[in-house]
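tl;dr need the bound structure. longer version: we got a ligand (iron/sulfur cluster) that a collaborator sent over and nobodys looked at where it sits. i said id run it. heres the input, straight from their email, havent touched it
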Amino acid sequence: MCHLPDMGEVVSVAQIHVDMSKCSGCGACEVACAFQREGLFSTVRGSVMLHMEDRVDYFGIVLKRLDGSLLLGRPEGVEIVNPGGPASGGAATSKPVMLRQPCDLCGGGDPWCVTFCPRDALSVGGD
Ligand code: SF4
Ligand code: SF4
């Protein structure tokens, strides 16, 4: 039987998740996303962006979600931050990724970033 959500029911939305214990900072997700979107091997077109700071072994990703919030994965953990807001605990900047298209889960098909991540760090799940 078809189940329609009633008012007030929280509907889980599929999103990309990252396991920072697996991420190597290779950047393949960023290039894969840009290629599936625009046919370009580019590091400035993806909905997900490699994040690096001038510190040894400090890297992660920033992913622009459909609602404008950001999935921020860094060595100290994973959090969801509002666009333009300060990312707690660090100096991560969201500005470059805010100029890009948000993640639409590759139009509902197989997410390329998940497929091409060599460390199985990315997955699709609920909020
Ligand atoms: S799911 Fe698709 S659109 Fe979203 S970040 Fe990954 S490759 Fe890009
Ligand atoms: S492709 Fe996977 S391992 Fe590489 S930066 Fe993206 S999430 Fe990390």
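gonna send this back to them w/ a short note. Residues 2-122 form one domain.
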